[in-house]
Amino acid sequence: MDGCQSGVPTYEGDLHVVAAAHHIVKALGATKNLSDDLRKILIDLDSHLSMITSNIDSKGGRGLVDVEERLDQAERKIMRWETDPMMIWDSGPKEASDYLEAVDETGKLVDGLRGLSVHENRKQKEILHRAMNILQMAMSRLEEELIHILVRHGQQFEPKHMYSRSIRKDIVYDESFISVEDEPIKETSSRNYSNDESGECIVDLVHADVIPDIKSIAKVMFTSNYGPEFCEALISVQKEALEQYFSFLGTENLSIEDVLKMEWTCLSSKMNKWTWSMKIIVRVYLASEKQLCDQVLGGLGSVSSYCFLEISKATILCLLNFGEAVAMGPHRPEKLLRLLDMYETLACLLRDIDTLFSEEAGSFIQLQFHELLERLGESAIAAFEAFRVAISSNGSLYPFAGGGVHPLNKYVMNYIRMFPEYCNTLNLLLKNQHPGVADQVTEPDYGLDASLLTSCPMAYHLRSITSCLESNLHKKSQLYKDEALQHIFLMNNIHYLVQKVKGSELRLFFGDEWIRKHNAMFQQHAMNYERATWSSVVSFLKDDNPGSSSMSKSTFKERCKGFSVAFEEVYKTQTSWSIPDPELREDLRISTSLKVVLAYRTFLGRNLAYTDDKCVKHTVEHVENSLLDLFEGSSRSLRNSRRW
Amino acid sequence: MPRNLFRCWIRVRGVTLPLFSLAFNLSKNLPTKMTGTDQSSFLGRISIRRNQVNAMEGYHEQEIEDLELFQKQLSDRFAELLSAPDDAPTEAFLSISWIRKLVDVFLCCETECKAILLMERDAAQISKPPLDRLIPELLERVVKAMDICNAVTNGLELVRHCQKLAEIAVSALEQKPFGEGQARRAKKALVSLMSAMHVDDKESSVQKTAERSWSFGRRSGNKDRHHGHYRSLSWQVAKHWSASKQIHAMTMNLAAPRGPEASCLPAPVYILSLIIVFVMWVLIAAIPCQERSGLTTHLPINKHVNWTHSLASIHDKIGEEWKKKEKKGMAGLLYEMQKMEKLGQSLIEFTDSYQFPGEKEKLDEVAAQVAELAEVCRRMDEGLVPLQMLIREAFHRLVRNRTEFLDVLEQGGPVV
Hints:
Chain B: Residues 1-23 form the signal peptide. Chain A is 69% helix and 0% strand.
């Protein structure tokens, strides 16, 4: 360039060369697929060349005047808005593009004047100084316009449209373990979302129409080295928008201390909300934010990911801190499923996170996610253990009235019925919890292959949980003084266990063998019950002398009386016992009937001679009908209420 | 040697102490030389000792010796921290690198204290009086400290924001040729910087100052907006949370053990508690965070034992400084922020009165200030992210620490 300036003699020739070069540069600049870097170089070159032209011209006295005129023109366009209360981009596309053009022109003039390394020319210095002042004013204005556009065209989106708000209102496992005495509500809504929910949906956080406007502002600000201002403005608005959205989701910042002190029902709903917000924030909001940053700042190197990180970091940390607080809280059994929800949510978001924060600066966030995932896994395992311990140590001082299905049993079975939905996660987490099982594990995904399902870690742990439960129930059965009631209690409870297993996906994990064994078990208890209750009663009806045709009347009377008293006694006690399952109740009545009624009928038939006697207090039909009153859970007496 | 030590760690039952990974971390990451080797040998010593003499006569004497050694090391570490120069381009008192050292010291002490307390310890020992009261109190402090770590992490975001604004100012002021336009650009950034700094931490005053910093009220569309994003929702740990109240609560019941207790288990519990409170207090004083007004300048430091001398001096020094600056409403005692504040003010004055082309003398003076501000930015750029990560590491350590205590307590009796 200096060469050009010094080459006074070949003034005409210079002018031609410069003009030709300028022409080429302009033509190149019009090419489409240029990288932004290259384009910038061409633009710079362009302004240099036009400067040179005017400089060469100035030898003829016209150059600086020309530059000044151009600057005057740009200044007028820029200054006119300084007093205008309207925002430029609100006023129309023409206004906006005029303004940008003027700014662009000023920028070019500044670049050109600077590139000329004018040492002596005072006039040039003055023009440069003026141009820079104008440029500063314009940049300040553009920053304002940018913030205005972002705010005005920022779009809220309804989370409803993104994800069904699948909070599982499942009272059974929302209940704390302590309140196990309550009747759990049986109907549990099942999870209506699954993990392969790949529905990554990106929304426009800022209206798509204004993206080109923002881009053009970005372009001109970065070209004029006002990039940092652009970034700070973008970050400030978008960060605040994210925070507003965060509170719009109903998520609030909580201190760890607060979380640790929180009551279970409250914590549970917060955990639910977290799971839900986490997905929306990461999958939808942040993915969209990332897109916005890339759209606006793409091609500017790491600027886009820097802005994205700054915008999202605080909110992400806030979400992570809640997770940390939950994971470090007391490991209560009722927390297990919620923890698994959180774990699964994080696990399936990890890929998104790794993509969103793939740059080095974002590795901090990545790391925090991985750490939290690990912590939640540990916490879930601990809650699982706590669950097992709680089952084993659930003690009772008094026998459970009526011998029906114990609330602990109901709670546990309804709770573990949810486990199959978490099968893969539980298998992953429990794999190392039992060395014997870990060895068998070869295939991480057990699919629906029944033979494999029964030998996966979760199946092992499920069976170990139910065996804890069984031994606790045995302990509880010992509280009954009446042996028959012990058997009724165990029969009821094991039957319940089997029904729950058979009636759900649990059966795949427990396997037929287990079911067969447990069927046999409760049937055994039924038989034991019959023996314990009815053997002595029926023994009155036994024929001591099978050879002779009948017994003496006095023996008959005595036997009859003995039977009546014993039967009435049984009736009185066992009407208060309960067999909640109608089928089981029916089965037991039939088999009791078969035994007792048949024996009674035989007994009376064999001693027909005495049956008129008053000593036969109950007819066969009476006995048969009375048996129907047993196990209904409300005490009755045959002596007081003679129904027949 | 390390190999042997490692083996003796593996043998240690009961408490999980990821000490070795830690020792490696320390030697890798820490700028200070006082940590790595000292610590592993100290921990090795305890571990070997505990293995050898466990349940034997003379156990108590050994413990006293361990404790004395530990206190000696503490004393050395705080003395080194105290010896940092007040005003130096690097490693100044309360500078970012100094704070990093402080947090390192905290991490070391934490590990060692825990080793003394838990390693090879019969759980029953720490669940009987007075420890059955002291340990739960310690754990409550630990939880509060976690929240403070998070508050400080948020505060460091503000510091980073200040750094970015200062960088804009620097780049404007470095422009050649320099003119009024660049002066205005610098001033705009500096004014934002000052108002970002000069918020007192009260939620109510937040919006006013923040609004001033962006001052876009001129046009109707922006009137209701304030861009104090570093003071908005994510700035908060929780609604109504207060850093100074946390410190206050942490100092409750924090009393040095007396008499025979001073040489047995209550002593390390006190030391650990005190160091946690102290370090958190310094962090709050140095780094802006939610609601610091009324921050106590008095911590119950027992000055009658040797090891607390340097710690008490650091405490007094910072306390004095805090009293001086508190009224003004400021960004914290962080050396770099203080420096930035002073330079920023002076540069605002310059940009205010600047007229093209400016006097040569004044310009030279300003150039020196700009260079200084650039240097502050550079140190922030280098130090802030690592500091943020270190604070996060401290947070995670507190989490693990609490879990380990709870595990041991669970073995030894009623769970807290």
